[in-house]
Amino acid sequence: MKSGKQSSQQEKGSSRILSLTILFIAFCGFSFYLGGIFCSERHKIEVKDVTRTTTTKAVASPKEPTVSPIQVKSVSFPECGSEFQDYTPCTDPKRWKKYGTHRLSFLERHCPAVYEKSECLIPPPDGYKPPIRWPKSREQCWYRNVPYDWINKQKSNQHWLQKEGDKFHFPGGGTMFPRGVSHYVDLMQDLIPGMKDGTVRTAIDTGCGVASWGGDLLDRGILSLSLAPRDNHEAQVQFALERGIPAILGIISTQRLPFPSNAFDMAHCSRCLIPWTEFGGIYLLEIHRIVRPGGFWILSGPPVNYNRRWRGWNTTMEDQKSDYNKLQTLLTSMCFKKYAQKDDIAVWQKLSDKSCYDKIAKNMEAYPPKCDDSIEPDSAWYTPLRPCVVAPTSKVKNSGLGSIPKWPERLNVTPERIGDVHGGSASGLKHDDGKWKNRVKHYKKILPGLGTDKIRNVMDMNTVYGGFAAALIEDPVWVMNVVSSYSANSLPVVFDRGLIGTYHDWCEAFSTYPRTYDLLHLDSLFTLESHRCEMKYVLLEMDRILRPSGYVIFRESSYFMDAITTLAKGMRWSCMREETEYAVKSEKILVCQKKLWFSSNQAS
Questions:
Q1: How far is CA 40 from the centre of its chain?
Q2: Rounded to 5 degrees, what are φ and ψ at 286?
Q3: Longest distance between any two alpha carbons in the chain, whole Å
Q4: Could you tell me if 457 and 244 are in contact, meaning their C-beta atoms sit under 8 angstroms apart?
Q5: Residue 163 near residue 143 (C-beta atoms within 8 A)
Q6: What pLDDT was estimated at residue 60?
C-alpha cells in the first residue's frame, strides 16, 4: 500500500511539472510574438520618418543640409594670469618633474588631460607690439614680444642677437660661424653643389639657436624647419617664429619626430649638443629615417676638426678622436657615406644603393639591424624610436635626390608616393591644385592682407596634398602643412613636392609658443574631427597660437558656423561670414580676426 501511494504521488508531481513547463513555453512564445510585433512596427515608423525627412529636403534643394545648425550657449572666456603668457600646454616646464630624466624625455610632449585643460585667453606680454613685417623681421624684432634677457647675456658675444633699445637685432652670428651665417652657408654650398641648383629644397635644423641658418637659406630657395625643445630661458623656437622663420618645438629623445620617413633633403646640426654616438646611435637612426635617399647630414662642431678645435671644447684630442671614429663607424653602418669636409663642416650622404641595405639584412649580427616589415617607417605620432635602419623601398628610392625633379618644377610634378594614399592619383593632385588656386583667389578678395607683408606665418591646419600652400608659393609667406594623425597619410606627398609640414592631433595643443602665426586656415576640420575633439578646446588652442590682429579662415559646413561664431565672440574675435567662390549653401566661409588686448592686471 505504501508503495502504491508513493507511485501515485510521483505521477501527480510529474504531471504538475509537465503542465508548468508547457505553460512556461507558451508564455515565452506569446511574449516573443508580441515583442516581434512591437519591434517591427517601431522599426517601420523610424525608417518611414527618416525617409520622409530626407526626401523632403532633397526636393527643396539637394545642397541644403538635412539637419539644423548646431547651437551653443553664449560664453565669455576669462583672461589667463600673466604667468600663462608663454604657456605651451604639452611642453609645460611646470610639469617636467612628473616625468623621467632619461634621455631628457621630460622635454617631449606630455599633454594635460581634458579635466586639466585651461579655458582662458592668454594675454600678450606687457608692451607687446604687432610684429615687424617680413623681410625686416629676419633682422630685428621687438624686445617686449620675446622679453628674454638670459639668451641676450649668454649669446651676445657669439653674435646670436643683440639688444639695442626696444629691439633685438640678429647679426647672423653663431657658435660655429663667427664670420656670419652667410659666409658659413657659402662654405656649405661649396661642399654641396645641389644647394645651388634646386636639388636641395627642404631642410631641418636640429638645435636651431635663433634660426639664423634657416633664415639665410630662404634667400637661396631652401625651406628649412628649425627644431628645438621648450626651455626656460632660450626660447629658440619663439625667436625663430617672431622673425618669420619656420620652426617647431621638438626634441630627439625617446619618440620619433612628427615627420614621415624620407622627408627632408638635408639635416643640419651646428654644435647642437645632441649626443649622436650615445645609446647605440639611436638619434642618428632617426636622422637617417627622416632624410630622403641621396640626402645630406651636415655636422659642424665636436668632434669635427678635432685636431685643431679640441682645446676649446674642454676635452682631450684623444677623446675627440675616439668620438669622431665612433661617429664615422655608426654612420657607415647605417648606409651614410662621407661626402665632403672642409674645416669645421663635415657632410655625409645617405645612400640610395640597395646593396648596402641588403648587406645589413644578410648579416644577422650587424648593428644596427635592418628594420623588419612590421615597423611602419612613416608612423611618427607618439611612436618610440626604433634601434634599426629603415631601408628605402623602390618607391622611396625613386623619390631620392637625383631622381626627384629640382625645385621649383618639383612642386607641380606628381610624387610617386601619392599611390600610397587611399584614392591618390596624378589626376586627383591636379584637380586639388586647380581647386586651391580658385579658392585662394577668392580668399584674397575677402581678406586683402593675404599675399601682402601683413601675413607671414601661415598654418594649414588640415591639409591633404599641400594645395593651399602651393597656391601661395609666390607670396611672402611660408606655410606649416598639418596632416591629422588620424587621417590618410599624405604628408610624404607634401614633402616630395618641396613643402614642409608635420603630423598632429587637434585634440591636443600644437608644438609652438603663443602668438606665433598670422593666419590659420582650416577646411572642414570640425566636420572631420568633431566626433573626437571638442570644438571649444580646438578654438582656444587656435587663439593661443594666433598673433593679436591675426586672422583665421574657416571653411566649414553650415552646420557648425553658428557655433563657431558664438565661441569666437567669446574669445573677443570679430568675424564676418562670406560665401564660398561658388556660393554653395551647405558650406560657408568665416573670416575672423583676433583683437589685440592686454590683461587688466598688467601695469600700464
A1: 50
A2: -70, -35
A3: 125
A4: yes
A5: yes
A6: 36
Distance CA 335, CA 354 (A): 10
| pLDDT above 90 (res 418) | yes
How many CA atoms within 13 Å lie on the side-chain side of 296? 26
Residue scoring higher pLDDT (406 or 354) = 406
294: left (phi over 0), alpha (psi -120 to 50) or beta: left
**So what's the pLDDT on residue 67?**
67
Distance (Å, whole) CA 481 – CA 474? 16
User: Which residue has 640626402 as its cell numbers?
Assistant: 295
Q: Per-residue pLDDT tens for 516-567?
A: 999 999 999 999 999 999 999 999 999 999 999 999 999 999 999 999 999 9
**Crossing angle (nearest 10°) for helices 558-570 and 535-545:** 50
What CA–CA distance (Å, rounded) separates 505 from 185?
Answer: 35
Position 57 pLDDT exceeds 50:
no
Question: In percent, how much of the chain has pLDDT > 90?
Answer: 73
3-state secondary structure (DSSP) of residue 123: coil
Please state, in angstroms and rounded to a whole number, the distance separating the CA atoms of residues 555 and 540: 18
Average per-residue pLDDT for the chain: 88
The partner residues of 484 in beta bridges, in order of sequence, read 504
Q: What residue type is 572 in one-letter code?
A: R
Question: What's the distance, CA 591 to chain centroid?
Answer: 23
CA-based end-to-end distance of the chain:
114
431 or 311, greater pLDDT: 431
164 forms beta bridges with 167
pLDDT tens sequence across 234-278: 688 999 999 999 999 999 999 999 999 999 999 999 988 899 999
pLDDT of residue 221: 97
Interatomic CA distance for residues 250 and 203, integer angstroms: 15
Task: Compute the radius of gyration of the chain from its Cα atoms.
Answer: 30
Per-position DSSP letters for 551-578, written without gaps between them: EEEEEEEHHHHHHHHHHHHHTTEEEEEE
Q: Which of 250, 198, 190 is nearest to 221 (CA)?
A: 198
Using CB atoms within 10 A of its CB, is residue 147 exposed (0-12), middle (13-18) or buried (19+)? middle
Residue 551, beta-bridge partner list? 519, 593
Question: Is 316 in contact with 366 (CB distance < 8 Å)?
Answer: no
Q: Residue 24's pLDDT is what?
A: 59
How many angstroms from the chain centroid is the CA of residue 109? 12
Round to whole Å and give the CA distance between 547 and 133. 13
Q: Hey, how many other C-beta atoms are within 10 angstroms of the C-beta on 145?
A: 21
Residues 6+ positions from 20 with CB-CB distance below 8 Å:
none
Distances (CA, A) of 113 to 251, 537, 544: 22, 12, 18
* Residue 592, helix vs strand vs coil: strand
State the average pLDDT over residues 94-99.
93
**Mean pLDDT on 29-54:** 37
Side-chain half-sphere exposure of 278, counting CA atoms within 13 A: 8
Neighbours of 333 (CB within 10 A): 17
Do the Cβ atoms of 175 and 189 come closer than 8 Å? no
267 strand-pairing partners: 204, 297
Burial class of residue 92 (count of CB atoms within 10 Å of its CB; 0-12, 13-18, 19+): middle
Which amino acid, 288?
Answer: H
pLDDT value at residue 53? 30
